[in-house]
Amino acid sequence: MVRAKKFLNVSPFKGEPKLSDFELVEEDLPELKDGEILIEAIYLSVDPYMRPYMSRFPVGSQMIGGQTAKIIESKNEKFPVGSTVFSQSGWRTHTILQPDKLSVNEFTLLPDFGSQSYSLAVGACGMPGNTAYFGFLEICQPKEGETVVVTAAAGAVGSLVGQIAKIKGCRVIGFAGSDEKCEWLEKELGFDKAINYKSNDLAKALKEAAPKGVDCYFDNVGGELASIILHQMKPYGRISVCGAISGYNDQKVLVPAPQGLFVWGQLKMEGFIVHRWTDRWMEGITQMLSWISEGKIKVEETYTDGFENMPQAFIDMLNGKNTGKAVVRV
Q: Residue 68 carries which DSSP code?
């Protein structure tokens, strides 16, 4: 019999999540039935979307999220013991699944990653990677020579969007929360300009970096920064709205109504959830893995060790303490 550990959200988030909002519990798992597999987590993901999404579930629910795992027992010949998988199993160490009943974005038998770490399956070659790949290319439809702005540019998604934009021949400006992150974006990832949103006159800094305006804007943040960027969009500019992390901890920000900008600038703004592209899921993973293997995309991961540290890793990620993807190693 296997004893699983899992984290429950035992108190609704009010403002910034606290350690007391979580409870670590254990449960004994039953014997496998035909068609089932038992997986053991190796890497777990903490992501900004978890903060607002958990409000949809009753208090006491298990925390949601993706993980890379190994199959340690199987009664399904299509999924042998020792295989590496991605599973949307949440914050838990062991899980029994019926993979034949799950969609590709819920459960994936992973291809050979070669020399790359399987932690990428919860990052650049998983949901965050597909968020960058489809959310940027399909909605912004960038053209060579255009100017692209990315917020939360040193995060799991933003750092990939900027590099994809460079592959497509664009000029890229990123906003991040420290001078160290800005230096990393420029020197390591090849951003043309990175702006510290905590220590600059943002409207002036953006005007200097993009004097002719912005063609494409990938928004992870929302709030006041989004309003500043919208005021510097070129005519027919495209905006892809991925998230609004500036408001996830309940901060209230008043910004000017943007409708006039959209009318006179003939702008196009579209929000998305990445599972829109479930039918093309492996296309994104395969392309991202190829770009990484070719050295066209660099990946940074910030690790927290120990399953018991999931809540702290989550809180740290929401406070921007990670560079690139935040990952918990079991």
A: E
Distances (CA, A) of 151 to 3, 135, 246, 330: 41, 14, 11, 30
User: CB neighbours of 204 closer than 8 A, spacing ≥ 6?
Assistant: none
Residue whose C-alpha is closest to residue 324's, from 300, 305, 304: 300
Q: What are phi and psi of 67, to 5 degrees?
A: -150, 150
User: Is pLDDT at 200 greater than 90 in this prediction?
Assistant: no
pLDDT of amino acid 63: 98
Residue at token pair 């392309």 = 287
Say how far apart CA 303 and CA 318 lie, in whole Å.
Answer: 14
Tally of CA atoms within 13 A in the half-sphere of 240 that contains its CB: 26
Longest Cα pair distance anywhere in the chain, in angstroms?
Answer: 65
> How many residues are recorded in the chain?
330
Axis-axis angle for helices 223-230, 202-209 (nearest 10) = 40
Over residues 221-226, the mean pLDDT reads 91
Rounded CA-CA distance 131/117 in Å is: 19
Rounded Cα gap, residues 147 and 46, in angstroms = 30
Q: pLDDT at position 248, please?
A: 66
Structural contact between residues 213 and 201, judged by C-beta atoms closer than 8 angstroms: no
For 61-70, what is each residue's pLDDT tens digit?
A: 999 999 999 9
**At residue 306, does pLDDT exceed 70?**
yes
Question: Structure tokens of 328?
Answer: 């918990």
**Could you report how far apart the first and last alpha carbons of the chain are, in Å?**
20
Please tell me the predicted confidence (pLDDT) of residue 108.
94
Residues 6 or more apart whose CB falls under 8 angstroms from that of 79 comprise 37, 71, 85, 99, 109
Residue 244 has pLDDT above 90, yes or no: no
**C-alpha radius of gyration, the chain, whole number:** 20
Q: Residue 246 above 90 pLDDT?
A: no
